[in-house]
Amino acid sequence: MKSLETKRSMLMIQLGGIYGLWLREVRRSFRDRGQLIGGISRPILWVVILGIGLNPYFRGEVFGKVNFVVPFTYLQFIFPAVIALNILFTSVQSAVSVIWDREFGFLREVLVSPLSRGTILLGKVLGGATVAVMHGCLVLLLAKFADVNLTWMKVLEALGLMSMLAFALTSLGVVIANHIRSFQGFGIFSNAVILPLYFTSSSVFPLDPALSQAQTRVVYPEWLVTVVEYNPLTYAIDALRGALIGYNQFDPHLGILIMGTSGVVLFALALFEFRRV
Amino acid sequence: MYRLVGELSGLGLIVVVLLLVGLVPPDTSLSEMHKTGTLKVCVPTTYPPLVTGDPARPGIDIEILLAVSDYIGVELLLNPNDAIGRDFNPLNWDITRGNCQVLAGGFVDTTLIRSFLDTGPPYAQTGWAIVTPAPLKDINGLTIGVLTNISGLDRIGLSKYLRGQDVRVRIMSNSQDLVAGIAGGELDGGVTEALLAGWLASDNDWWATSLPDELARYNLVFGHWKGDLTLKQKMLQAFRQLELDGTLAAILERYGATQILPAL
Predict the structure, then answer these.
(1) What is the nearest CA distance from A202 to chain B, expressed in angstroms?
(2) CA dist., res. A120 & res. A136, Å (int)
């Protein structure tokens, strides 16, 4: 009986620890002006400036002539990708708190608490993922501007997908942070990961699903198609497109499967490395 | 508590800024229309009941567009194009951004159409129907005239269906030939778009019947040029108003477009 109570109390401690660490990450993000500015500047630059700037090049000019093979406007096409971009930046940068906590001794204090390493990591990752989802939601505020018609069901579906993506990417950020010893190094390394991941994920140009593999490789260089197809973020953005504008270039289930698997694998990898801290 | 409010204020400010940024016009389509004071629309010369060519009863699309342009405060300028629907390849219709801001007179909301155009709100439904001099139970063994003027309906699906029904098919190029064929007894009936079928049936005291559900039904819409978001949103606003004050329903009722055809 006592053992059961002890177990329950231990569980409560762990849950309380997760909540405490989660809340700390979330509240810290509200104070982090740099991160907030990033959260607003990316949607403005990508949706408003790029969207308006490229609009004349993708708009229709002659009925029957297709310049842009997707049955949507360019703004609608890039909108889900900008959500993913905001999540990508915020998730990976949230993990900078691991370096911060290590530098300023907070991590040492937490590590000597009764919390397990798994609990500490889960609290941090969930906190980072929550902040990333909030930054993704900032982009949703521009839905009307981009002519993306949102319904509650669409928003809920998108939130589920955004949470999965944010969890996987925050875990990736922790994996990166575990290997980096300084803030500067993390910035350079994370940009070296974020931007190539984003640009090679069919985020700004479509792979026309009406074309066969062979035809696609005529339209684009073979190496680019291969990189896009091997990039896991391609399928996450595709799943988000399916949820928000009803357009998929690949099997929509692939996105959920890949994000779920990546989340588990990257968290396990982050935990493995976090145990060695 | 004050601390939490202070922490959340940054996020609140960002939300407000983003909402304000969302009010910026993304293109010049609406302002250009206001500059010229006209809403230019490409329509087929005749496609009843959407476009009739009769000034007294100009057609569903023309009446809706008149109400929309009235709401926006511009003049409706029609650009009739007799190539629309005549040729399978819409490139040959020679419809460009310079000719018109909106395309009307038989555009349906399909992936194919949305590859070329952005689409407005749906205002009626259509599909394939058959018009015959007498009520019909099945079409096996009949000689059928087929008129496929409307852009975007599934012609391949229709062709598969007709092949499976053991009918003799004659392709018609306009509704006058179809009516003449049926009236003269050369054709047992005519397959065409449902609203046109209903119109021909009511004009000639014939019967119109929807083809089975396996052939999809589609929403009738107006076509906008991709990227003309401000004009599209203004027209959407006008549509909502026409729905609210009953104008839209009255127009559809006047042309019998609210009637549901019996299914085959």
Answers:
(1) 18
(2) 24
CATH number of the structural domain spanning residue B180: 3.40.190.10
Contact B152, B218 (CB under 8 A): yes
Q: What residue numbers bound the domain in which A94 lies?
A: 2-59+68-274
Q: Is B53 exposed, middle or buried (0-12, 13-18, 19+ CB in 10 A)?
A: middle
Confidence of residue B252 (pLDDT cuts 50, 70, 90): very high
Contact criterion met (CB < 8 Å) for A59 and B103: no
Look up the ipTM and state it.
0.74
Q: Are B101 and B228 in contact (CB under 8 A)?
A: yes
Structure confidence by residue, pLDDT tens digits, A132-160: 999 999 999 999 999 999 999 999 999 99
Q: CB distance B116–A64 less than 8 Å?
A: yes
Nearest CA to B176 among B151, B199, B209? B199
What pTM, to 2 d.p., does this model score?
0.83
Chain B residues with beta carbon closer than 8 angstroms to that of A69 = 115
Please tell me which of the candidates A33, A59, A141 has its beta carbon nearest to residue B18: A141
In total, chain A counts a number of residues equal to 277
**Is residue B50 a part of any domain in this protein?**
yes
Size of interface A-B (CB pairs under 8 A): 106
Structure tokens at A144: 């009307």
Nearest beta carbon to residue B19 from set A27, A141, A147: A141
Do both B97 and B150 map to the same domain? no
B35, B121: one domain: yes
Say yes or no: B39 and B161 in one domain.
Answer: no
CA–CA–CA angle A107, A113, A114 (5° rounding): 135
A180 contacts A150 by C-beta, under 8 angstroms: no
The answer on B34 and B121 residing in a single domain is yes
Please tell me which residue of chain B has the smallest CA distance to A48.
B26
* Residue B138: domain span: 126-210
